């Protein structure tokens, strides 16, 4: 609960939520020891998190983060749920390389969510444009998962049975900034 109250994953900030007479540094060490010595069942952790943020349907976010820790490159793929103005990771997978991840890994992560909670619990999926690819988009449409992924204005698309393609920017130039519309996605995208 301290994690939620203090809106931080920092051990020092989480220690603020521990009651008692111990020094702050002792409470911080207690937090570190707890996490160091635990073997977590991440499916159970995900169920616990979703019970805290109980909803009929969830906005799911797929994101990747990269940073340096000393000489090491840290690259992690996250699947998170949106609750209000925050997103809470429920599944994550460390990647051994920088750059984009494979479609099978994204599918496996989303399948894990579906196997534990059901596809009916997904309101829609949000992702950055780096998460574009034929296999991935076909997976989402096959599972009938709504998604919102930004595309470049110059990306070519074909609108329903049209013989020609045109840039997204020209196809949807009537949509104002920060406005969205729902678009039906066809199978066989990006062939």
UniProtKB/TrEMBL annotation:
One annotated GO molecular function: DNA binding
GO biological process per UniProt: DNA transposition
Transposase IS4-like domain segment(s): 56-155
Pfam families: DDE_Tnp_1
Official protein name in the record: Transposase IS4-like domain-containing protein
Organism whose genome encodes this protein: Rickettsia tamurae subsp. buchneri
